């Protein structure tokens, strides 16, 4: 209901108000500054001649100037979170085995891919005496403290299968026949 009322007031006498606004005299623009007229003066031959003329006094002074510059030692400030590729990172080939198609082929040293992380966690879980933190760190070019943290806080999933006795117990119950 409120929309109808406001529309009536908005559309009231629209044509007359529009004609009145159109018929008003347009305001005169502000006068231009005289520097805006320099572009028209640039075409004159006197100004072109003055610009192209060489001054011998200034040329001799310019020839006497000798500049010797030395670069100051470069200091690199820490850019916060920015990472600019200043040097090439060493990369190593991944050790993937049969999951080769699922992952990247080259990884920077000090990092591992997702498939490698799952593989090394599973190897450590199955054979912790063989796959120690030191051996994993040497194998994947990682730091020992990072590998210890990885082995402590990340555990791969285990799949548990229910014994067949529970299946047997469930299937031994026969449904009642309706007659």
UniProtKB/TrEMBL annotation:
<dbReference type="InterPro" id="IPR009622">
    <property type="entry name" value="NDUFAF4"/>
</dbReference>
<dbReference type="GO" id="GO:0032981">
    <property type="term" value="P:mitochondrial respiratory chain complex I assembly"/>
</dbReference>
<feature type="region of interest" description="Disordered">
    <location>
        <begin position="18"/>
        <end position="42"/>
    </location>
</feature>
<comment type="similarity">
    <text>Belongs to the NDUFAF4 family.</text>
</comment>
<comment type="subunit">
    <text>Binds calmodulin. Interacts with NDUFAF3.</text>
</comment>
<feature type="compositionally biased region" description="Basic and acidic residues">
    <location>
        <begin position="18"/>
        <end position="27"/>
    </location>
</feature>
<protein>
    <recommendedName>
        <fullName>NADH dehydrogenase [ubiquinone] 1 alpha subcomplex assembly factor 4</fullName>
    </recommendedName>
</protein>
<dbReference type="GO" id="GO:0005739">
    <property type="term" value="C:mitochondrion"/>
</dbReference>
<dbReference type="Pfam" id="PF06784">
    <property type="entry name" value="UPF0240"/>
</dbReference>
């Amino acid at each position: 209901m409120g929309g109808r009322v406001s529309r009536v007031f908005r559309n009231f006498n629209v044509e007359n108000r529009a004609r009145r606004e159109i018929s008003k005299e347009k305001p005169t623009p502000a006068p231009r500054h005289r520097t805006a007229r320099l572009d028209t003066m640039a075409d004159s031959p006197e100004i072109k001649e003055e610009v192209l003329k060489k001054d011998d006094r200034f040329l001799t002074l310019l020839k006497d100037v000798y500049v010797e510059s030395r670069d100051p030692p470069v200091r690199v400030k820490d850019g916060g979170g920015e990472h600019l590729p200043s040097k090439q990172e060493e990369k190593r080939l991944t050790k993937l085995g049969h999951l080769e198609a699922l992952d990247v082929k080259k990884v920077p040293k000090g990092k591992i891919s997702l498939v490698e992380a799952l593989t090394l966690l599973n190897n450590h879980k199955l054979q912790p005496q063989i796959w120690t933190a030191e051996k994993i760190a040497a194998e994947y070019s990682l730091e020992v403290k990072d590998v210890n943290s990885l082995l402590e806080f990340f555990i791969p999933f285990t799949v548990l299968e229910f014994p067949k006795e529970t299946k047997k117990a469930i299937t031994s119950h026969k449904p009642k026949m309706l007659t």
